[in-house]
Specification:
single chain, mainly alpha, Helix Hairpins, minor pseudopilin epsh fold, 2 domains, three-stranded antiparallel beta sheet, 3 strands, globular, binds manganese (II) ion
């Protein structure tokens, strides 16, 4: 079926993240799970005021709304947004932490290694399904974890990078060993360029608001 939302293109080939994430995992995760969130969202928003909103607007408009329909819309819109963000948080080629982002990481965590350790802990300690995030609040970096479809963006927090810790993200490759998946992804796949772009966007937003 069609609707206002489409599955964003995967920013790399399905086998590009091997061996850390297999093409088989991408096959299920992107083509099945992510696609299903998109299809379900399209079905849910049909004929509602949400059909004309951007994805971010839907997430912010429905967060905390306990109505049955709004909860479903929030869960699926959140998951579409989170997965778009996750694929962009990963890079098949090494990226380098540099410039303003590197300075901010060193100021707020000490060094990249300490940041990665915090992300690993957040991912490990997220009980059940969810996400680990590097976020920026007024330029100050921190690590957060969220359950299920929740995203710090829903409450207006600027997200820099995320790691999916739902079982579907790692079970085919690592079975129950979430910490191993986290170790591989955090060591080999984080896209620092994407994180730096997101930090820059916040700067521009702050400047635009001040003008
Ligand atoms: Mn997922």
């Amino acid at each position: 079926m069609t609707g206002p939302f489409t599955l964003s293109p995967l920013p790399f080939d399905a086998d590009a993240l091997e061996p850390a994430i297999s093409a088989r995992t991408i096959g299920f995760h992107y083509h099945k799970h992510h696609q299903t969130y998109v299809d379900t969202l399209n079905r849910l928003v049909e004929g509602t005021r949400y059909a004309d909103m951007k994805l971010e607007e839907i997430v912010r408009a429905t967060v905390g709304n306990t109505g049955e329909k709004e909860t479903k819309i929030f869960n699926n819109a959140g998951q579409v947004w989170n997965h778009d963000f996750y694929w962009n948080s990963l890079s098949p080629v090494p990226t380098i932490l540099s410039g303003k982002l590197k300075q901010a990481v060193e100021r707020d965590f000490g060094d990249a290694k300490a940041l990665i350790k915090e992300l690993a802990t957040a991912g490990k300690e997220q009980f059940g399904s969810g996400w680990a995030w590097l976020v920026s609040k007024g330029g100050k970096l921190s690590v957060e974890k969220t359950p299920n479809a929740m995203t710090p963006m829903a409450k207006g927090t600027n997200c820099l990078i995320t790691v999916d810790v739902w079982e579907h993200a790692y079970y085919l490759d690592y079975q129950n060993e979430r910490p191993k998946y986290l170790e591989e992804v955090l060591k080999n796949l984080l896209n620092w360029n994407f994180a730096a772009e997101n930090l820059d966007k916040e700067d521009h937003a702050v400047r635009d608001a001040a003008e």
